[in-house]
Amino acid sequence: MTHSPFVRPRALAARHHEIVILGGGIAGTSVAYHLAKLGKKDVALLERNTLTSGTTWHAAGLIMQTRGTHSLTEIAKYNAELYDALEAETGQATGFKRNGTLGVARTKDRLHETARNASVAKSFGLEAHMISPAEAKALYPAIDASIIEGAVFIPRDGQTNPIDTCMALAAGAKQNGVRIFENQEVRDLWRTPKGLYQLQTDHGVIEAETLVLACGLWTRDLAARLGARVPLYAAEHFYVVTEPMDFIRPTLPVLRDTDGHVYLKEDAGKLLIGAFEPWGKPLAMESLPKETAFIELLEDWDHFELPMTKAIEIVPGLADAGIAKFFNGPESFTPDLLFMIGEVPGLNNLFVSAGYNSEGIEYGAGAGRALAEWIVAKSPQMDISFVDVARFHPFQINKRYLHDRTAEVLGLHYKMHWPSHQPETSRGVRKSALHDRWAKLGASFGEGMGWERPMWFAGEGQPTDNVYSYDEPNWFRHTAEECRAARADAVLFDQSSFGKHLIQGRDACRFLQWLCAGNVDVPVGKLVYTHMLNKNGGIETDITVNRLSETEYLIISSATVHPRDTAWIRKHIDAEWNVTLTDVTSAYAVLSLQGPKSRDILSKVTDADLSNESFPFATSQVIDVGYARVIANRLTYIGELGWELHVPTEMAQHVFDILWEAGGENGLRPAGYHALEHLRSERAYREYELDLTPVDTLLEAGLGFTIDWSKPCGFQGKDVLDAQKAAGTPCKRLLSFKLTDPSPVLFREELIRRNGDIVGYVSSGVKSFTLGSSIGLGYVKHADGVSREWIDAGNWQIEIAGKLYDADASLQAFFDPKGLRTKV
């Protein structure tokens, strides 16, 4: 049977369901269970073999509620709540028990990271106790406490039986009306001209209005038949089970030794020893047995030697233990070690729940609930933008890229989660036309959506390797010099990775007026900083709009959210609009010239009048720079006088060369993305995914000034903002914070306390080299409103790894709060 992967010419007679789920593992049964709980009755789940086959059956079944971020913890903590209650609800035992997690740290850096994660737990009322080596040994007598610096004990964590837990979710789904069909392999699938999905099975054709792909390893290839990109790749995943050992008790906590790359859990009087070794073994799908439901791969003791050696170090008694079972099974991984859920871009009502990176049991319940809510409400009901399947760029489906990245990704589970950590594999995918020039100047490159971007500059001929730290990474001294140059003289950034969309058509203005909260019906050459909102008033995009003509606009967004922005805009273009969307990212390189002397430098290479009167802030002109015609936008993301020059890619090197030569007398320096982050934070400029998310509104984010309340057509989400505005002072608000102690360093996720009470957490933070101490942005909540009076009356502290530091809080930026430096 052959056909286009996008649309089948005609629909076949079929058994119809409102929602069909493919996959009977933890992901599929969780979605089914939660859809049924939300009242959906016409739901069918199809499993090609039997429930739990594929990968769920061989999962370790660990349950850890506390994660490194608040967003992930919000999802993970629900798992323990649900699994704890499933047996009573369904009558199906799950094997869930709260025997706790003991996470040991062999180094001071790991202990600091562990303490930071323990602080996150406090936001959710979760117990997480930092304990000494002696206390850790009291909880787990078999460990060698002499090799650890300390530990965390989370008593309400535990473990569950993956097969029984999956069967309990299936039982709960069936009790609420879901129909489950085993041994129903999908041989083919297609989308009909009416937008329905049809599946050819061994027992006939099944039709769905909404289709959910929750097929683990097999999701990528099934999705590809519909023209959908789901970047997944398999890897071998190992554990061993010992013979019974005398010290093992049912109440023994799960032991996580991340420095040793291993975890150990009690398993019917034995120990299961699992690993996230530093480098994994990628596995091509073609090498898997095609007709095997419960796949077991060959043993590989050479590969497992390092984690097993480390396991013996932490539990010396393992040296004499017999091994009852060596298991090796396949798991699926994503390029960024985050799972993916959500609606596939360009295919309405096609949803995905996959890529759990060997943590399906730990995230399955929370992710299934979030996806079910999305399907029923037609939009997400919590912030899941960071796991949205729409976040990936088209190139990331490349199998060679995925193979190479997967080897690294598997090991990242248990490696240190350093701030600003850069991947080592699958690099050099996308390079600016100026890459070689930056390299010659001593750039240390980082990766963002495949782009190689200068992060900091060591200087010509100097080492550019990153030395990570929670206190003072090696790039701080270089970044400090770049920041000082930006404030005193001028710097040059390469922002070619900006996402750039051209919106054209007779309805371009009307379309963007509806989609954007700001007024984009402005004169040609006017720049508008604005946002696109969801129906709940939450922020979906953070963009700059440049009106090029009466019928065309250039939309500029961050590289890391560019694919998601594309999906959001395209989703709203329907037959009503005479509008086209074109991705022109590669057409332009972007050089951002910023700093008090930027006008002097640019004036040397252009005949354009750059005065404030002729070229005011937030305007755009096409000007000559050297021999090139460029789009010059007078904008800044650092709070200084400056221009973002959109240069035809083939002319980028020429423009760079003449700017670099012209800037020599004015102290022009190259600057990287670290400096950009530090400088934008000083000015309290927001960053999407950190300070702005789909569950934050513009009023809560302090961006009410960007809203045009009087547009005749209104805009999507306006009704919610109208109600919030009418209610008065918002109960949630983004504030700026500045530590009074110059030593500690803020990054993100640190707790915010007012008069001792936890009221929020830092969404983004940096060491300010201009102000002399760390600063950050963070949302705080107060039921009676976050007013200026309430802020001023409070005693503010930031908690970093369990320690409290005094801070000042403000509604405004601590640097140039009135923005005067940008308009000189």
TrEMBL record:
Q: Which UniProt keywords apply?
A: Oxidoreductase
- Domain FAD dependent oxidoreductase intervals: 19-374
FAD dependent oxidoreductase central domain: from which residue to which, for each copy? 380-432
Q: What Gene3D superfamilies does this protein's entry cite?
A: Aminomethyltransferase beta-barrel domains, D-Amino Acid Oxidase, subunit A, domain 2, FAD/NAD(P)-binding domain, Probable tRNA modification gtpase trme, domain 1
- Reported EC number(s) for this entry are 1.5.3.19
Q: Which Pfam families match?
A: DAO, FAO_M, GCV_T, GCV_T_C
Catalytic EC class: oxidoreductase
| A molecular-function term among this protein's GO annotations | 4-methylaminobutyrate oxidase (demethylating) activity
Q: InterPro entries, per this entry?
A: FAD-dep_OxRdtase, FAD/NAD-bd_sf, FAO_M, GcvT/YgfZ/DmdA, GcvT/YgfZ_C, GcvT_C, GCVT_N, TrmE/GcvT-like
Task: Give a yes or no for keyword Ligase in this entry.
Answer: no
Segments forming domain Aminomethyltransferase C-terminal: 732-816
Q: Which SUPFAM superfamilies match?
A: Aminomethyltransferase beta-barrel domain (SSF101790), FAD-linked reductases, C-terminal domain (SSF54373), FAD/NAD(P)-binding domain (SSF51905), Folate-binding domain (SSF103025)
Ranges where the GCVT N-terminal domain occurs: 434-711
PANTHER family from the xrefs? AMINOMETHYLTRANSFERASE (PTHR43757), PYRUVATE DEHYDROGENASE PHOSPHATASE REGULATORY SUBUNIT, MITOCHONDRIAL-LIKE (PTHR43757:SF15)
Give the record's family classification: Belongs to the GcvT family.
Q: What is this protein called?
A: 4-methylaminobutanoate oxidase (Formaldehyde-forming)
Name of the gene encoding the protein in the UniProt record: mlr
